Amino acid sequence: MSDVSLYIHTVTYPSLSYRRDWILDTMNNYLRGLNDTYLNSTSLYPTLSPGRPHIHVFGQHLSGAEMVRIYSSIDCYVLPSHGEGWGLPYLESMALGKPVIATGWSGMTEFLNPRVAYVLNYTLKPVHTSDPWFQGAKWAEPSESGLVAVLREAYANPHREAMGAAARAEVVAKYDNKAVGRSILQRLKEVSAQLAAGGPRQPRSLDISKDPVHIDLHMCALAPRLPRAVPPLGQAGAIRMAVATTWAPRPCGIATFTDALLRSLRPLLPAGSQVDVFPIILDLQMPTNLTDPYPPNAIRQYNYGDYVRAAAAINSGGYNVAMLQYEFGIFGGTHGSYATCFSKLLRVPVVSVIHTLSDNLPDEHHYNLQNLAGVSDSVVVMSPASRNKLGAYHGIPGGHVAVLPHGVPRVPQVNTAAVKASLNVTGRTVLITNGLIHPGKGIDLVLQALPEVVAAVPNVLYLVVGEPHPGCKQTCLDHYKHLQAMAAERNLTGSHVRFVTQFLDEDTMMRYIQAADVYVLPYRDRITTNSGTLSMAMAAGKVVVSTPFEHAAVALIGGRGVLFDFDNWRALRDALLGVLGDFPRQAALSKAAREYASGLEWSDVAAGYLRLLTNVTQSASMATA
Question: Which of 30, 31, 62, 482 could form a disulfide with 66 if both were Cys (CB 3.0 to 4.6 A apart)?
Answer without folding.
Answer: 62
